[in-house]
Amino acid sequence: MTQPHPLKFQDPKIAKLYRDVPAEQIARLREFRATQTWKETTIRGVAWRYLDVGQGAPTLLIPPGALGTAESGWQTISHFAERGYRVIAPSYPPSITTMNELVDGLAGVMDRAEVGKAHVLGGSYGGVVAQVFVRRHPDRTEKLVVSHAGCPDPERGRKIAGALRWLRLLPMGLLRAIVKKRLAGLLPEGHAAAAMLAAYVNEVMTYEATKAGLLNGFRRAADFDLNTTFTPEDLADWPGRMLLIMADDDPSTPEPVRQAMQALYPQAEVHMFHGTGHAAPILKQEKYYSVLETFLEK
């Protein structure tokens, strides 16, 4: 079943959010929305929505970042679809509270799309999801890219679990403001592409996000940190190849985290960006895509 895109850019209230965004970028997003439709399916009683773009033989599975919506990766989806890939990009159902249930749902989406194996590309929160996916579904993972993400951190998990005790009591408006501020802290300032991302975050948080979805995003993060144990031997029998993408000044993955990731994945290739913070896909987009293409096409 397919549905038209729920966020209509021609709505004046939405267009107003993009008033500081360059016209060329607005036109590209408008075109994407005009040409894509959502597909819907039910997996283990949970409704899933996803984008299925492109007709190529190599398939990319792109779990989204913290926003949880497939369309947040629209530029990457478009880029690889135009280069002969098929891209499956699901949105996270707001009702799911654990990482295992989430990645099993992703595998279910692949089943519905009749995809046996795929390259898995996860950035930030999506990079956390990708690490769980390859362990639960190694037979579905061709190659793995983890970008700007860390490994389980019990201390962080305890902080998130503690914060959830009061976050769940907040009205949606205040919860939305807290999450927007948290995300804004990862965005670069004074860059044209950053204006687009900031406007997009504002749109999704205002018109699409739900309180359950936001809270359960935190619950899944706490579940990952508190209930997950990774070792370098986990993927010893997995025949695929892996790429870690990092930045030397990413506030979400400081040097100890980057070192821990490289120790956890000694078999992985590593590409380090410099001076891009958490936003290498924005500030160095052409280079970022070049790194991905080189790895995937080897």
Can you tell me about this structure?
The protein has a single domain (2-296), classed as Rossmann fold, CATH 3.40.50.1820. Strands 1-2-3-5-4-6-7-8-9 form a nine-stranded mixed sheet, with helices on both faces. It starts with a strand and ends with a helix. The protein is globular. Helix 6 (154-167) runs antiparallel to helix 9 and helix 7 (172-184) runs antiparallel to helix 8 (192-207). 47% of the residues lie in helices and 17% in strands. The model is unreliable at 1-7 (pLDDT under 50). It has 298 residues and is an alpha/beta fold. The protein has helices spanning 12-17, 23-35, 74-82, 99-112, 125-136, 154-167, 172-184, 192-207, 211-227, 255-264, 280-283, 285-296, and strands at 2-4, 37-43, 46-53, 59-61, 86-90, 118-123, 141-147, 241-247, 269-273. Strand 8 (241-247), helix 10 (255-264) and strand 9 (269-273) form a beta-alpha-beta unit. It has twelve helices and nine strands.
Query: What radius of gyration results from the CA coordinates?
Result: 18 Å
How many structural units, i.e. domains? 1
> Gap between N and C termini, in Å?
35 Å
Work out the helicity level.
40-55%
Strand arrangement within the widest β-sheet reads 1-2-3-5-4-6-7-8-9
pLDDT below 50 for ≥5 consecutive residues: which ranges? Answer: 1-7
What is the CATH architecture descriptor? 3-Layer(aba) Sandwich
What is the level 1 CATH name? Alpha Beta
Structural class: alpha/beta
Shape field? globular
Main β-sheet: number of strands, strand sense, barrel status?
9 strands, mixed
Mean pLDDT: 93
CATH superfamily: Alpha/Beta hydrolase fold, catalytic domain
CATH topology: Rossmann fold
